[in-house]
Amino acid sequence: MYNLLKGKRGIITGALDQNSIAWKVAEKAHEEGAEFVLTNAPIAMRMGEINALAEKTGSKIIPADATSVEDLTNLYTQSQEILGGKIDFVLHSIGMSVNIRKKIPYMESNYDYFMKGIDVSALSFHKMLAVAKKLDAISEGGSVVALTYMAAQRTYPFYTDMADIKAMLESIARSFGYHYGLEKKVRINTVSQSPTKTTAGSGVKGFGDFFDFANSVAPLGNADAESCADYCITLFSDLTRMVTMQNLFHDGGYSSTGVSDDVMKRLGIESES
Q: Which N-terminal stretch is annotated as signal sequence (predicted)?
């Protein structure tokens, strides 16, 4: 451990169970000396194991619906009271698509479901930032990280409306990052993670096959949840104090690889490399 977050206070959203990236981030943040509050939607908390994580990390839990400005206001207010000061880092690890859950094809998207996905998975990020700024709840030089996926830039048919939603999430990071950086030096970035065997990720149709495909393309293989947590910790730390408004790929090199020798072999094509 390097005490990268010693003395820092944070809010970590979205820790559902031990497979969650947010869960791993919480464990790593605790190891690196941070104190933080855990939060999730009430329904998600009933489904998950967040109490065990809170006990392990000595953290308090504040239920909050990330689509509710009232809940978010309470979250920041209570967090500062519990932690004894302004917040230094925030993890946005919130994503949900009713269209995917109900296996509705992209071109037949239910628009009420689509709007729900936008509100939960993207607008919640804007709301979290707007409430924090209004309350002046994040310390100068603080860091906010949201988790995303490369379908925001490239087409993955099985990712349906979440691709559009993640594109909006990344745009919010850039747009809000400019204003918050200018006024308070707060950094806002997104981390574009490999396909990861989380409870949410595994619910996407064809996830297993695509996980194997991405793993065969990426020179370093797929980045797992634990390594993603390590990366997030560096973004929360002062070592990355000049990094903001970026979409940062954490995918073992997948995003920069056109085709791999392994995939060529599977297709029966001889590589000349």
A: none
